[in-house]
């Protein structure tokens, strides 16, 4: 998928993406397809019922649905702003009695596992729209409704921002466990969030992470050990994920593998190669797209 055009679409096109009108007027909407992310928008002024199944139409994508309505939504009443999170695709029914609007972001699931791993199953609806959710909704809505066509750099940046916002929402909702099973869980989640942010820095070490969290290194290591993990292993995994993302992107073909390694925080191409073999079963040279002649 390489286009980034925004198109007006109707019921057949929306159905092809997993949005089926079961009652009410035929659907109209917009679609913008980026390289790997798909944005959809629809809405109406009259009652409507939708059957949604993106798990079938986009089996490799997580679904983020942002819904606003002035009437009833399912069994709720009054103005409703909700977010539907479905890491393995949305399978749900929606009922609207008045004005409604929906924006959907379909994000590759593999790009979200660095935020929450394993990703939770099922389709979950939240009516307490938090700051991250409101921000992603407004951004996705503005992009899908924009008439201007983005440049290749803008398309890449838009996709990266949507992926990171989606991953952050999942981490906010699912990454920090609220049960009292172990204090290690919350501590480990905080550390992983910090590592995700700082992994490109070659100076980051387990001791650095402990200092940033203002805890002892021993406590940090115990939090990871309780889940069968190590701090250094998580740093390497996050760097490996970042390097893999850069290597598979054609926009970075001009960078050498050594430059990719440094951008991801690795000390050398050898350490990058070992990490990719362990995490992806491949090498930097094999994962890169082949150059094509112009």
Entry keywords:
single chain; 294 residues; alpha+beta; Arc Repressor Mutant, subunit A; 10 strands; globular
Word description of this protein:
This protein is α+β, with helices and mostly antiparallel strands. It has 2 domains: 170 residues, Jelly Rolls, CATH 2.60.120; 105 residues, Orthogonal Bundle (Arc Repressor Mutant, subunit A). The protein is built from 11 helices and 10 strands. The chain has a 7-stranded antiparallel beta sheet with strand order 1-3-4-9-6-7-10. A 3-stranded antiparallel beta sheet has the order 2-5-8. Helix 5 crosses helix 7 and helix 5 packs parallel to helix 8. About 4% of the residues have low confidence.
- Mind telling me the C-alpha Rg? 21 Å
> How large is the count of helical segments?
11
Distance between the termini: 19 Å
- Strand residue percentage: 15-25%
- Number of structural units classed as domains: 2
Helix content: 40-55%
The ordered string of helix (H) and strand (E) elements is EHEEEEHEEEEEHHHHHHHHH
Q: Looking across the biggest beta sheet, what order are the strands in?
A: 1-3-4-9-6-7-10
State the name of the first-level CATH class of the largest domain: Mainly Beta
Number of strands: 10
Secondary structure category: alpha+beta
Q: Looking at CATH, which topology of the largest domain would you report? A: Jelly Rolls
Rough outline: globular
> Per CATH, which architecture of the largest domain?
Sandwich
Break the fold down into its secondary structure elements and pairings.
Layout: E1 6-10, H1 11-16, E2 19-23, E3 28-33, E4 38-44, E5 48-53, H2 54-57, E6 61-69, E7 80-86, E8 91-96, E9 100-108, E10 124-126, H3 131-145, H4 152-175, H5 183-198, H6 206-213, H7 217-225, H8 231-248, H9 257-264, H10 269-280, H11 284-287
């Amino acid at each position: 998928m390489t286009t980034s055009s925004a198109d007006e679409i109707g019921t057949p096109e929306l159905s092809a993406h997993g949005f089926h009108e079961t009652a009410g007027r035929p659907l109209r909407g917009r679609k913008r397809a980026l390289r790997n992310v798909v944005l959809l928008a629809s809405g109406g002024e009259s009652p409507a019922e939708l059957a949604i199944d993106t798990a079938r139409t986009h089996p490799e994508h997580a679904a983020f649905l942002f819904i606003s309505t002035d009437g009833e939504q399912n069994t709720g009443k009054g103005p409703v702003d909700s977010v539907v999170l479905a890491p393995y695709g949305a399978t749900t029914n929606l009922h609207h009695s008045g004005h409604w609007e929906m924006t959907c972001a379909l994000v590759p699931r593999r790009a979200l596992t660095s935020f929450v791993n394993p990703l939770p199953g099922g389709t979950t609806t939240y009516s307490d729209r938090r700051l991250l959710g409101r921000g992603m909704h407004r951004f996705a809505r503005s992009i899908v409704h924009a008439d201007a066509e983005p440049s290749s750099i803008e398309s890449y940046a838009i996709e990266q921002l949507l992926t990171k916002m989606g991953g952050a929402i999942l981490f906010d909702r699912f990454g920090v466990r609220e049960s009292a099973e172990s204090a290690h869980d919350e501590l480990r989640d905080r550390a992983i969030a910090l590592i995700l942010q700082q992994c490109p820095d070659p100076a980051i070490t387990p001791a650095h992470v402990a200092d940033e969290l203002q805890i002892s290194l021993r406590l940090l290591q115990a939090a990871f050990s309780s889940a069968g993990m190590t701090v250094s292993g998580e740093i390497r995994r996050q760097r490996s994920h970042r390097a893999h993302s850069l290597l598979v992107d054609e926009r970075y073909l001009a960078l050498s593998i050594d430059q990719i390694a440094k951008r991801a925080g690795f000390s050398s191409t050898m350490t990058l190669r070992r990490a990719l073999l362990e995490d992806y079963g491949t090498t930097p040279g094999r994962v890169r797209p082949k150059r094509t002649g112009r």
